[in-house]
Amino acid sequence: MVSPQTLDEHDRRIVAAWAADCAERVLSLFERVVPDDPRPRDAIARARGFAVGTLDAAGEIRRRFVAGRAASGVADAAAVAAARAAAQAAGVAHMGAHALGAAAYAARAAGLAAPDDVDAAAASVEEVRWQISALSAEARNALRRLPLLGEDSAGPLGSGLLARGDLAEHIRRIQAAVTGSET
Questions:
Q1: CB under 8 Å to 84, separation ≥6 — which residues?
Q2: Which of 4, 12, 22, 85 has the fewest CB atoms found within 10 Å of its own CB?
Q3: 4: part of which helix (H) or strand (E)?
């Protein structure tokens, strides 16, 4: 049985473009710390290639972990989150729910790059607002097809890293916006 977090290929291509946009907004946070590591930038380019149909899901599934390895050994927390946002964007070819992971890590990166805790909270919230505003109608519809965070254990929206802390808050905010259940 296919996980409801997968989405069909058409929907994955739609949300891959949005995930790439989210990750690209914070890419500079990684590149300023590790300027000679092309893996996150390449992951974003591959997500865009998948979105437009020049790359296939099978090939991207094999390469989806490459950008995440760029986070290893990096001490700067914002840079780590930016690399993980890129890795999640590349993972959309495998499972559509990774688009929400890309957005959540991008919001985390934006917050971690802020100079203090008050600014960090505002920066994360502002980043999520931008992400929501950047959603096309098609991407909103595709994201509506995903189970809510924690409702299905068979993927990124299960009980793993995305279901805890600030990442979970960011995803819940996005899901509330796309489902119309904002409070």
A1: 67, 68, 71, 101, 105
A2: 4
A3: none
Q: Do residues 14 and 140 touch, judged by C-beta distance below 8 A?
A: no
* Residue whose token pair is 């995803």: 171
Q: How many residues does the chain have?
A: 183
Neighbours of 153 (CB within 10 A): 13
What residue spans of the chain are helical by DSSP H?
Answer: 9-31, 39-52, 57-63, 66-69, 77-91, 98-112, 117-133, 137-144, 165-179
Tokens representing residue 48 in the block: 């865009």
pLDDT digits (tens, 9 = 90+) for 42-78: 999 999 999 999 988 777 776 766 767 888 889 999 9
Please write the tens of the pLDDT for every residue from 153-180.
Answer: 888 999 999 999 999 999 999 999 999 9
